[in-house]
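Many introductory courses stop at the sequence. We go one step further.
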Amino acid sequence: MKKVMMTVLAIFATFSMGSAQDFGDHSSSTLTSKAWEALNAGDHAMVKAYTDKCIEMYLTKAKEMQAGLTALPTGSQEEVSKYWALNDVGTCLFIKGQALQKKGDKAGAKKAFKTLVDDLKYAQCWDAKGWFWSPAGAAKKTLVELEFETSI
């Protein structure tokens, strides 16, 4: 009886957690926006859900876009936004790394940041203040800090 009850509780918990996720239209921009909101709210479980879904759905396209570049795309917001998958997946890797770092998972954070730096270095993120910034550039700095903390 106890085993049956534990199974029922596990199924209920899984169903409850799954229903809390709202992937919206499943677009990379929606998933990225929701990941930012979850990070700002300190909801690490939702950060994981949104970033993992974005990475799962769009990583292949992001890598294709990355492969066609030799430098950061420049120009207008419209021009840079043509690399939507690269930008959103790169940003999600940065958000995921931030959440893992805040959660105390330094190894997981390093992995997310390293993937961003190694595989999607030309990703850019639009700042509401009116400019693009490089998640990979920020990830490099954080990786140095994490390596320094580990060596102390």
